[in-house]
What does this fold into?
Amino acid sequence: MNKIRNFCIIAHIDHGKSTLADRMLEITQTVDVRQMENQVLDDMDLEKERGITIKSHAIQMSYKYQGTKDQVPKDSPYTLNLIDTPGHVDFSYEVSRSIAACEGAVLVVDATQGVQAQTISNLYMAIEHDLEIIPVLNKCDMENAMPERVEDEIVELLGCKREEILRCSAKTGEGVPEILDAIVERIPAPKGDPKAPLQCLVFDSVFNSFRGIIAYFKVVNGTMKTGEKVRFVNTGKEYDADEIGILKLDMSPRKEISAGNVGYIISGIKTSTEVKVGDTITHVDRPCEKAIDGFEEAKPMVFAGVYPIESEDYEDLRASLEKLQLNDASLTFQPESSMALGFGFRCGFLGLLHMEIVQERLDREFDMDVITTVPNVSYNVYTKDGGMVEVHNPAGMPDLTEIDRIEEPYIRASVITTADYIGPIMTLCLGKRGELVKQEYISGNRMELLFDMPLGEIVIDFYDKLKSISKGYASFDWHMNGFRPSNLVKLDILLNGEQVDALSTLTHRDNAVDFGRRMCEKLKELLPRQQFDIAIQAAIGAKIIARETVKQVRKDVLAKCYGGDVSRKRKLLEKQKRGKKRMKQIGNVEVPQKAFLAVLKLD
It folds into this structure.
């Protein structure tokens, strides 16, 4: 066990985690030269296209120590279990699960950009789990690198000595062997007893259509052998360990896996609900006394309805979401129905990028075409009889007469930027009903601004706006900060007097009129013209606050009435008028998918 090191790589988005992992795999010759490519651990097409990591990936390397420290034994190679993690704030749950399976973390900071918001939040997460931190300065070979200045920031942030910070270039591979040596020297070996009753922590799982569900685990105590009977503690289900092994680039079977190691188990599990991330695996004949404390459940922040375009695909969509949930534990869903869209699911996501990725994965991996409604957050609605209802969907709001008060979720947002963009960023945050908590200089002309803001204001377009006004230089991170009472109203959209429940939103009373007017204008552009007038109205309760009309497509019915008495023309027009009236009563207005997405991009 003292030759095992479990570590993860954490950093802000685009600071070079996956590139550093590539170099480590090259130096330790874990991946064949023929298989080597950029971002080799990112196995989804989506990850390669966007250049971001979405899933954390575990892989085992074997490394012979090259360092100079005498107290580190050099006789046999070390087993290094690496977990590469995402950097985007929407996938921070992946990071928290990876951290729970490690004893150390390599903190990568870009020498050209310095410490960013997600660097700080991932670092705090690692410190809470008592991980040994190895600070690494990446991209030191670039012309615009500022190693001394960024080292000052890291020293101030971590309180470490300057000589503990390692410099490297993940692109060229310079300085990477020193990082591997530092991992062996500084990160402690896992603690655990290979002879104790078996205790394994499940930290991820994937669905394989031939082999069933494959669970990834870290052995905390005990030893697991092929063919043994094991039990998943939380679900109480028992299985045979048909195949166990370690994670190389592909799965590599082994006869046994003992304490401190990371591996996978295939036991022919078919039902996705039987494997929970954070569960404990133990032996049936010699069980452990108690389950390992897993990690807390992911709390979804953004809710949206996901509906199949064809109503008969409803069951297929359910199966696809269940399989996707295995691989993405932060996705939650429950059935719901809508007047406009039929049967579907109310899904909870960690953020807008997460929602976009889930939609894309449903399309690519499961061939599901879906309509997604306007994203919103969950509100606590207190009724006059003292009860409290959690509302994820505007359609689930109690009647106005029964509501005592509505509380909305607030976040503590941290924005790190250079002093040049302070003005526009302040204007943006205050315009989104934010309150400035504090501002302080981190180093040079870089500042951190802390705001308390309503989560509902940032779920639609805040991040895009922040990036555009700061020319991409501001970094943003947030965490929940409780609920506060707020003056919210439900804004309904009516088409010809019929309410379209999928377009309803909860918004602050001060913004409602402006928002309703912009919605109506946008829908007027997007709705195809019919043979009759379509009235688009925005309403709060029974009060109409905005209206637009999509004019009918008119045909010249009088073209054939040349000459003759005027009463012929009038008779024809009256007939036409009655027909239009009847058509308006029975005609229904199809709302295109673009209309649901347009609400996101009202500006």
